[in-house]
Every structure is written in structure tokens, then in C-alpha cells.
Amino acid sequence: MESGGLSLNNVVLSVHGKPVLNDVSFHADEQRIGLIGANGSGKSTLARVILGLLQINSGDLRVHGVDIWNDRKAALKTVGMLFQNPDHQIIFPTCEEEIAFGLTQLGQPKDQARRTALAILTQFDRRDWANRSTHDLSQGQRHFLCLLSVLVMQPKLLVFDEPYAGLDLPTSIQLHRSIDALDQQVVLITHDMDVLAGFDRVIWLDQGQVVGDGTPADVIPKYITEMTARAGQPDA
Ligand SMILES: Nc1ncnc2c1ncn2[C@@H]1O[C@H](COP(=O)(O)OP(=O)(O)OP(=O)(O)O)[C@@H](O)[C@H]1O
């Protein structure tokens, strides 16, 4: 198995006896990878597996050579995720504490972690957020805080699950630019095909299986045709 990038070999995950990921295999070392599929096709489950939050039943998964489930310390430095809902991610009262937390998990002393948190807030023109209450932030701002909390860990792979859902246009544009500028490998789950323009690769999941895999130009038109057919004909 190749050591760089994201490698899945015959990954199976069942929930209550029903396969949610059904023999998923691919190797991806491209910088920008889109993950698409209808509701319930297994995208978020796959993201949680990549992050090491769910254990697979069989198969093999490596992220940049790391066995994410069994090597938790290495996992923290290897992969980070921005969840659909920032409320599932934010746990601390102030922005600085929220950002510093992951670094202390990596073993940084608290003082150093706070300095690093301040540095990233300054880098993104949010120095004034340091002592700001996380509860007082708007939803878009909370998303942005989560992004900073993940970026500060400098993971090799970042997973974004519907990052633009519910954001207003300026916040969405700002987040889009931030994601665009990242040096890291990115896996982005979305229902918005426009977001995937310029991506290197798109993987299409259906009922827990990879049914399409290629460039956006290859995969997206087929996906739209299939989804349109499933939607059926409009009523006469
Ligand atoms: N904890 C769970 N318990 C029961 N079923 C689950 C659980 N997690 C996921 N599933 C099922 O697994 C399937 C895939 O769910 P998943 O959330 O991964 O889909 P998705 O592609 O991310 O969907 P969406 O586009 O709606 O976000 C669904 O049928 C879902 O009902």
C-alpha cells in the first residue's frame, strides 16, 4: 500500500448490521478531492472514518501512512476536520482557549499553546477575538473559529463536511478563499457542484460504494444526470 495521501483498501463499516461503507477502495494523493453523493450515501460516515472517530469492521485505512484508528497521537497531527455544525466542535468559553486546546492535546505546554493560538488569530486578522466569548460569535464566525482551531494543528489532510452550508455570502467567500489557499491536502464534502470547479478529483459515493471517480469534468455531469433522473419527471 502506498504511504502518502489517503489510502482505503476494501473498507467496510456496518451500522446495526447494515453496510454504510461497502468495500470502499481508493488511493488519493491529489491536493483537492471532492466527495459527492445523494443524502445518506455514506459521505459523512467516510469522513468520520478518515478522522478515526469510527472504527471500520474490515479493510485497511491509512492517512499519510498513519493507521488513524490505532495511532491516536499521530492521528492528531495527520488529519483534521471541519464539521457541518460548529456547535459540535466548540467546547471552550473563549476563542483563544478553543484554538489552544488541540495544541495541548499534542503535548504543547499551556503557555506555548496560547501564544500559538494568538499567533494564528493575528495571522487571520482576528487578534481581537482572543478573549471573545465563543457563545457571542455568529454561526459563520463560529465556523471560521473551527477552521482556525483545525489549521493551528497543521494536519496533512483536512476534511470539510459541507463547510458553506448556512453561511452568508461574504463569510462563504472568505472561507472559500481560506480553503483555496491551504497547502494541505483537502477532502471536501458538498452538494454544491460549483464549489468543485478546479478540484483535482471527485469521488462519488452511492449506497456506501464508489460509483464514480475522476476529474470534475468526468464525474459531475454523470452525477447530475443520475440525480436528475432519480428526481423523476415534473408533474404534468
Ligand atoms: N449512527 C448511525 N446509526 C444508524 N444509521 C446511521 C448512523 N450513521 C449513519 N447511518 C446511516 O448510514 C447512511 C449514511 O449516512 P451518512 O450520514 O454518512 O450519509 P451522507 O452521505 O453524509 O448524507 P447527507 O448528504 O445527508 O449528509 C445513512 O443511511 C444513515 O442513516
Automatic annotation (TrEMBL):
The record ties this protein, via InterPro entries, to:
AAA+_ATPase (IPR003593), ABC_transporter-like_ATP-bd (IPR003439), ABC_transpr_CbiO/EcfA_su (IPR015856), ECF_ABC_transporter_ATP-bd (IPR050095), P-loop_NTPase (IPR027417)
Keywords per UniProt: ATP-binding, Nucleotide-binding, Transport
> What protein name is recorded for this chain?
Cobalt ABC transporter
Q: Would I find Cytoplasm among this entry's keywords?
A: no
Q: Which residues form the ABC transporter domain?
A: 6-232
**Would you identify the family this protein belongs to, as annotated?**
Belongs to the ABC transporter superfamily.
SUPFAM superfamilies given for it? P-loop containing nucleoside triphosphate hydrolases
> Where is the signal peptide, in residue numbers?
none
Matching entries from CDD domains are given as: ABC_cobalt_CbiO_domain1 (cd03225)
A Pfam match is ABC_tran
- UniProt organism field: Paramylibacter ulvae
